[in-house]
Amino acid sequence: MTTKPYREPSIIIIGAGVAGIAAAVTFKKAGFEDFVILEKGSDVGGVWFWNRYPGLTCDVPSQVYQFGFAPKADWSRIWATGAEIQRYHADVVEKFGLREHLRLDSEVTDAVFDGNRWDVTVADGTRHRADFVIAATGVLHHPFTPDIPGLDEFAGATVHTARWNDSIVTEGKRIAVIGSGSTGVQVVSALQPDAATLTQFARTPQWVLWAPMGLRQSSLVTKVLLASPALRDRVYGLSLWASGILADVVLRPTWRRRLVQRFARWSLRAQVRDRKLRETLTPDYQPLCKRQVVSGTYYQAIQAANAELVTEGITEITPAGIRTADGREHEIDLIVFATGFHPHNYMRPMNLRGRDGLTIDQAWEKGPRAYRMSAIPGFPNLFTVLGPNSPTGSISLQYSAELTSRYITRWLERFRAGEFDTVEVTEDATTRFNDAVAEAMGPTVWNTGCNSWYFTEQNTIDLWPFDRKTMTAMLTEPDDHDFLINRNAPARDSAESSTR
Ligand code: N01
């Protein structure tokens, strides 16, 4: 094959969360230096930067909730707090020399493909040009606040958990928490002890799996792992392997799934003795169907003397509180919205235009759709890391982001070798992948009859229905048959060859 001379690809990574950090470190390790990371927040970390509500803890054990290239021996807890995870991200950024590539407070407003390269504009008007765009924009970063009548007239304070305001006083207040997902459960547990009253408005009860989330990592374990990097890497590998059990449990209806579901039911029975409250807290769908909530403190918190669970629908917010469908007015000083996100927005509201002016809204008119989480037809030289169908809730997100980043690196290497100028996944390959996804969703627990944020408006499930081995096989080497590989793009201006 004839190849063009060696040239360095310029790359723009959008987002400095788990996906963006994984991409940047992977590219750097492969010898690619001409990249910038554009991050809309004022620090790195993505969800771990934006979320700092009281009680924020990762419900995935720390030994697996970390990058494979940066295993940390000295996690202070088995399930780390949000603050510790955020410090970890900052340390990784320093350790791998990403600061010089980072542009904080840089929200991308436009990313337009001109037939040859990408033209990317930031909110302050700064423009960058590059050969490749990597969209590492995350899933859960557009908070959703329901439009409840009367909200504007409320005399107290309001806050969404994903935009916590540290000046808010919670101690001694009459607090309402709206929402019963992973966030609602954590924030109820954290705020109840010091609140005057805590009222949780739960539209749909959740199964809450018991786990001792406050458990510290023993100092002996830390000492041993610090002394032996080989052992530390083995523990990471083992944790990753063990997490495969979760994928198996959610993907296939076996005795293993039934066992976990029995544990969820037991968690409720063992901790809530009051029959009436237990009935109110019992969901009418299978455990694991929604994103599983894990907590060792929630059921105690909601049974405390100053706590109340309200399942009546909210009809309006009054200046003094919240009125429910039974006509009751709950007097409230602070409303905490733990009401989740617009989860399928991905790069939007960015003006993202691919080949021939195709907008992402046009391409995704029928919902978000990508090839193996990583490429979108009509958008040449653009890859997504933790894009549509990412394995939230089944496979390590760090593992998936690193795997996808290595896969993209294969394309960068081929570009560098002069093998192509633009590469774009085909419509056909994307349809085949999405058909396989739809079929594989059949036996998953997510498809057993509950309403969850996993569902798109088109009623598809935006998750990864395969195991880790299949994911690894799909994202190890690019399959050229699935791509339009173009070697004839017009020659580019050599003065424009850098992102910086
Ligand atoms: O959001 P959610 P979340 N009136 O969408 C309710 C991750 N996470 O922030 O179930 C009343 O799950 C809504 O009710 P319903 C994790 O992946 C991870 O809690 O739709 N209620 C629901 O109860 C998680 O799944 C960690 O009927 C309204 C809640 O708001 C994801 O983030 C920690 C309402 C929203 O729940 C999102 O979790 C925290 C209305 N109008 C989160 N509108 C880790 O530890 C919505 N609700 C890793």
Please characterize this protein's 3D structure.
The chain is of the alpha/beta class and 500 residues long. The protein is 29% helix and 16% strand. It has helices at residues 18-29, 47-50, 82-95, 182-191, 219-227, 229-251, 255-271, 275-281, 298-303, 360-363, 397-416, 427-440, 468-474, and strands spanning 11-14, 35-38, 102-103, 108-113, 118-122, 127-130, 132-135, 157-160, 174-178, 197-201, 208-209, 293-294, 307-310, 314-318, 321-324, 329-331, 334-337, 351-353, 382-384, 422-425, 483-486. The strands form six sheets. Strands 3-2-1-7-19 form a five-stranded parallel beta sheet, with helices on one face. A hairpin with a 2-residue loop joins strand 14 and strand 15. Helix 5 crosses helix 6. It is globular and about 75 Å long. The chain starts with 10 loop residues before the first strand and ends in a 14-residue tail after the last strand. Bound molecules: 3-acetylpyridine adenine dinucleotide. 3-acetylpyridine adenine dinucleotide is lined by residues 57-60, 140, 146, 178-184, 201, 203-204, 291, 314, 338-340, 392, 453. One of its GO terms (molecular function) is monooxygenase activity. Its EC number is 1.14.13.-. InterPro entries: FAD-bind_Monooxygenase_sf, FAD/NAD-bd_sf. Keywords: Monooxygenase, Oxidoreductase.
